[in-house]
Write a structure and sequence with these properties.
The protein is α+β, with helices and mostly antiparallel strands. It has helices at residues 6-13, 19-29, 32-48, 68-79, 265-276, 301-309; strands at 116-121, 127-130, 136-139, 143-148, 156-167, 176-180, 183-187, 191-196, 202-209, 212-215, 221-224, 228-233, 238-243, 258-264, 280-282, 291-296, 314-319, 322-327. 21% of the residues lie in helices and 32% in strands. The protein is globular, with a radius of gyration of 23 Å. The protein starts with 5 loop residues before the first helix and ends with a strand.
Length: 328
Amino acid sequence: MEKMKSDIIEKVLNGIGTEEEARAVTEWFATQEGEKYLSDQMDQKFEEIKEGYEDILVDHPIPSEKIFNKIEANIARKRLKIILFRCAAVLIPTVLILGLFYHLDSKVELFGEVDYEEVYVPKGERIQMMFQDGTRAYLNSDTRLKFPKKFSLSEREVFISGEAYFVVTENPKRPFIVNINEMSVKVLGTSFNVHAYPEENDITVFLEKGRIALTAPTKEEYILNPQEKLIYDKENRKCTITKIKESKYFSVWKNNIISFHDTPFSEVIKTLNRWYNVEFIVEDPTVLNNYLTITCEDTNLDNILNGLENIVPVKFVYENGRIKIVAI
């Protein structure tokens, strides 16, 4: 993709670009070059407000929390030239969320405690997000992501429940931290998948690229290298790390491809329930013990069920808005 012109970027960031320019700029932000631009912009603003230069931001005492909104709006519009993207709905299929970033020194106690936003992806849906530093997050069905309205000076921290794939923009000055229940994953710049649904016993983290440090609830730290998978057993509080050969199966869901590799039929049913928000009724529980391998690029539910019927001795029957699994 060709380099984006600075004047077009400025027009879009200031909210005066055309729809075509907004789409082009936002697509460029999703490239490696665009991500670096966003990260460099953050670093530049932080350099501008080092200790001793707070008066650049606020040139008068902060009298009261009562004027919080007024000060916030004034800074956003006039003082800091905040990077606020007004083209949030034109890039990534379904949804794109770009945060509003406040450049404030830690000694300027203007905003008090950090405010958080939360996104929930219901069953049957998947979305993609982008943060103000260029980091991308793909959220699978029935997933909840909590993130701050502004990242701190020292780290970028989010909280996940469900499944997500992160492509983190590298920034050694501010590591990216993903909190999973009582665990945390610390990264500088990498791509990895997190599978951590609260109703399931196992938490699985698969590292595709880069290097991550995972801290377990036992406070033990585990280092993952590329193509390694960590499984944390919540009941036994133990971690196991294995090298994965067929790594492609862990993150194809973000490309709207459904894939199972040597997976219990019971897990397949759970996944289909999340993806399509449909209830399955199992007449004979013994069929759930079958293991199967299948990849479907055509994610039409009927086609997937037909494919499963070819490899598992079952029949799927629609009944009153639900799907009955009949052993044959």
